[in-house]
Amino acid sequence: MQAEADGSNPDRNSRPLPVAIDLWGGYAPRGVLQLAGCLAPLRSDITCASLIGLLLTLPGDCRVSKLLYIESSPRKARSKSIKVANAFVENYKATHPGDEVVTIDLWKMTLPEFDGYTIDAKYQVMHGQGHDAEQAAAWKTVVDVIEEFKSADKYLFSLPMWNFGIPYKLKHYIDVIAQPGQTFSFSPETGYSGLVTGKPVAVVYARGGAYGSDQTKGMDFQMTYMQLLLGFIGFTEIQSVVVEPTLASAEDVAKTEAAAVEQAEQLAASF
């Protein structure tokens, strides 16, 4: 009996494994619903080994994904970018009922400062050198933020335009996560390479003016910066939803918002 309990029984993986799941008898963990649907056609005498093999080859719509939503406007209920992003999130939840959605409100998040030991720790990494105790402690606060970011499978950003660029809270977050050996690498032979790969990202932009004309597009350091930065750390599938201009008549703004919400909902459904 002890051999079976500690997993050393050689016949354990060939024994039948019940696959019935009682969804009404208690709390169903995240992902159980779609997993149960994927396993429903199986016979009740499936073995452990067969189940493991099946789980490794489940189609994409049977796997649980994590969407990380990063919110950067302090205006909350009055924010156009948040309103459109919320429409994205709600339709994403409706069309991906088993997935996890995690929101980071940058105005409620305490980010590590890049001073003293932290910046020294970064340069130690860049030069391939180790950290002393103070540098190691400082660098851990940076890596913790990066690990949370990299743990996601999909990403959503929402941001207003501030002074033709992005809010300083978002810039601070980016300055923390864009680190050598974590989200990008460098070698003399190949140059820079992004390390956050194979993951989609959607970005909702709001701006008071319109920046699509030849006269104004050179003033847009909001979308151009985000696309550059996201591409630099490895993203290739970048989708954009733009709400502009928000400084217009109430009727025009309502039409602009409605069009952006519709676009965001459609994007979320296939994301």
UniProtKB/TrEMBL annotation:
It is an enzyme of class 1 (oxidoreductase). FMN binds at S73, S79, K80, S81, M161, W162, N163, F164. Keywords: Flavoprotein, FMN, NAD, Oxidoreductase. One of its GO terms (molecular function) is oxidoreductase activity, acting on NAD(P)H, quinone or similar compound as acceptor. SUPFAM superfamilies: Flavoproteins. It catalyses: 2 a quinone + NADH + H(+) = 2 a 1,4-benzosemiquinone + NAD(+); N,N-dimethyl-1,4-phenylenediamine + anthranilate + 2 NAD(+) = 2-(4-dimethylaminophenyl)diazenylbenzoate + 2 NADH + 2 H(+). Binds 1 FMN per subunit. InterPro entries: Flavodoxin_fold, Flavoprotein-like_sf, FMN-dep_NADH:Q_OxRdtase_AzoR1, NADH:quinone_OxRdtase_FMN_depd. Its cofactor is FMN. Its EC number is 1.6.5.-, 1.7.1.17. Residues 65-266 form the Flavodoxin-like fold domain. Belongs to the azoreductase type 1 family. Quinone reductase that provides resistance to thiol-specific stress caused by electrophilic quinones. HAMAP family: Azoreductase_type1. Homodimer. This is FMN dependent NADH:quinone oxidoreductase. It comes from Rosistilla ulvae.
